[in-house]
Amino acid sequence: MMSKVAHGIVSNMRSILPRLEASVKGGTSKRPELSEHFTLDEMVANEKLLQYDEGSKERTELETALLGVLNRVEHVPIVINGQEFQAKEDFQQVLPYDIQQPIAHYGHAHRVLIQMAIDKCVEEQVKWDKVRLSDRIDIWERAAMLIAGRYRYNIIAATMLGQGKTLRQAEMDVAELVDFMRINPVFLRELANYEPIKDIQNKCRNSMRLRGLSGFVAAISPFNFTGIAANLPYTPALMGNSVIWKPSDSAILSNYFVFKALREAGVPDGVVNFVPAEETTFASVVTQHPKLAGINFTGTSTVLKVLWQLVAQNINFYQNYPRLVGEGGGKNFHFVHSSAEPETAVACTIRSAFEYAGQKCSSCSMLYVPESLWQNHIREPLLEITASLVVRQDATYCDSFCSAVINRRAYDRIYMWLRYIDQSPSCQILVGGSCDKRRGYYVDPTVVLVKDLDNIICREELLAPILGVYVYPDHKLKETMDKVAQINHGLTGSVFAQDQNFIEEAYDAFRVNVGNLNVNDKSTGLMVGQQPFGAGHMTGTSDKLGTPHSLLRWTSPQVIKESYKTHRNIFYPYMQINDQEQGIAQSDMVSQDESSFGHFNSDGNKVV
After folding, report:
1. How much is the CA Rg of the chain, to the nearest whole Å?
2. Considering 121, 348, 361, 458, which one is annotated as catalytic?
3. CA-CA distances (angstroms) from residue 93 to 73, 411, 437?
4. Which residues form the signal peptide (predicted)?
5. Which terminus of the chain has fewer CB atoms gathered within 10 Å of its CB, N or C?
6. Which residue, 299, 328, 357, sits at the end of a domain?
7. DSSP at 305
8. Are strands 435-436 and 442-443 parallel, antiparallel or unpaired?
9. Does residue 327 carry a catalytic annotation?
10. What angle do CA 390, 394, 399 make, to 5 degrees?
11. What pTM did the predictor assign?
């Protein structure tokens, strides 16, 4: 049996399609060349997190993997249709917390190579789309086993070192990747089991098959999540598409390890092509190609808008209407009510704001606290604990709460934010505010008291270890909530309260401005299948990764009707036209509905 969580999610798909009758059947259909049906009898659960206790097997395996990554500078090639290419210019991926230590070197594909990758994608898609769903699902399940097993520690090590994640954050990241590989095939089985309505028995047969999109899909992945980075190319691929994957330069080693695992699992060459490239060059080439079928993107809203504009400029040139799927984070918040438990609010806020140096797309960026709780219950523990957080020069130390930010570009951007905060009359730094780039890109966890909700700090996504705090008068609760709903459009938001009436009000107040709303829990830590994530407005297209919704974005279903009784009559009974006068012999006419043959009167006219 499926888990209740997964079964509830896939079952709910039926309610969004009008007059949909989804049936679960054993084995395959009578016409396997058209569609497949599956028996849904497997257990579905999220990947279990390993604990890495001192002396444990997993701790030893990880330490070995960390040494392996540190002691070798891995060459990461451009891979197109299984063939490796090298670029003329060589770049290095370095440790964010020790920029003198490289762990990988790679090159950027030039325009000709990107064009070659597109051509191979288009060529391979025709063949890949004909591969049976069950065979694709087998590949993804093998990939889940490989990543959960033999590849796990190398991917975790590359994520910790190359992306500056702590052990727990990297373990959660790889577990999420396993969930995508394991649970998406469950959703695909459920979608494949859908059958159109058959209300005329033995007269015709209706079926639907899930086709990939004609052309190619471009996947542009972020640095901050290895799991999401891999999900962007491999979800479209699961649905019958061929993909050109541009990984982030700052996550290239972990992404390459995932690419190798999927090739070993059986993904054919050319289905996913691994193409590191300069951002603007890649975007320019793929959006100018007539076979562009879709873009799967996670990053910033600014870049998502640029991609959308590039597609719009070329809309008359395409052979498809490209599918655009994008998530851009946003301004995530924690809103505390006077009935909240202060300890819970503080603990959840510190984790959400400062784990992974505030670089998650769901990181808490604003905290709203009532005056009745701020001074005596929240201010002191929030500031004391934040000041005590260990920001290690080495993310691999187990006492490290967070490490350096990802790269020089991020550091410079955050530095400018700190300068603005320091000079703004409506901002006051309560703790932190320092940064240092001599060895790595270090920024201290920072708490800023903001006195004006119209200040840009309250509105803009920072993607940094900076938490803005606004203290609102208790009697202005409703007014503050309305303002937050207006200015904070984010992926996630959280409310903290014990008052059930307030919680109900929060459901209504924050119905539109966030894609995920949490009650008495942090805004981060969403799990595949349990809390599918994605937001609307200008933060993204809200396609909810980790649900059947996201899979449907990458398929172009074809409905097939096969009639068993031929249709020859031309005229309808109400028209009162003598078919014999039209040169059609009555004996030759066969109707779908026998009642359409009326009786003729003495004048030769048909009586309705």
Report:
1. 28
2. 361
3. 9, 16, 16
4. none
5. N
6. 328
7. H
8. antiparallel
9. yes
10. 40
11. 0.89
| CB of 509 closer than 8 Å to CB of 345 | no
C-alpha torsion angle, residues 529, 533, 536, 538 (rounded to 10): -150
Q: State the DSSP string of 138-186.
A: HHHHHHHHHHHTTTHHHHHHHHHHHH---HHHHHHHHHHHHHHHHHHHH
* Centroid of chain to Cα 502: 31
pLDDT tops 90 at residue 18: no
Residue 138's domain comprises 57-328
CA distance 277 to 114: 8
3-state percent helix, strand, coil for the chain, nearest multiple of 5: 40, 20, 40
**In this model, does residue 31 exceed pLDDT 70?**
no
What does the alpha-carbon distance between residue 321 and residue 315 come to, in Å, rounded to a whole number?
7
Share of the chain above pLDDT 90, in %: 77
Q: Which residues contact 262 (CB under 8 A, 6 or more apart)?
A: 139, 143, 230, 234, 272
Residue 30 confidence (pLDDT)? 46
Is 405 within a domain?
yes
Average pLDDT over residues 379-390: 96
Residue 20 has pLDDT above 50, yes or no: no
Task: Mark which of 479, 495, 519 sits at the end of a domain.
Answer: 519
Q: Please check whether residues 239 and 362 belong to one and the same domain.
A: no
- Among residues 174, 130, 182, 137, the alpha carbon closest in space to that of 152 is found at 174
The Cα 488–Cα 462 span in angstroms is 12
User: Is 361 tagged catalytic?
Assistant: yes
Cβ atoms of residues 184 and 140 within 8 Å: yes
Mean pLDDT of the chain: 89
Contact 338, 480 (CB under 8 A): no
CB atoms within 10 A of CB 4: 9
* Catalytic option among 124, 327, 355, 461: 327
Statement: residue 21 has pLDDT above 70? no
Report the CATH number at residue 365: 3.40.309.10
- Across 556-573, b (16+ Cβ under 10 Å) vs e yields beeeeeeeeeeeebeeeb
Q: For residue 58, which amino acid is it? A: E
Residues 337 and 324 in one domain: no
Decide if pLDDT at 44 tops 70: yes
Check residue 536 and give its pLDDT. Answer: 81
Kindly give the pairing relationship between strand 466-472 and strand 490-496: unpaired
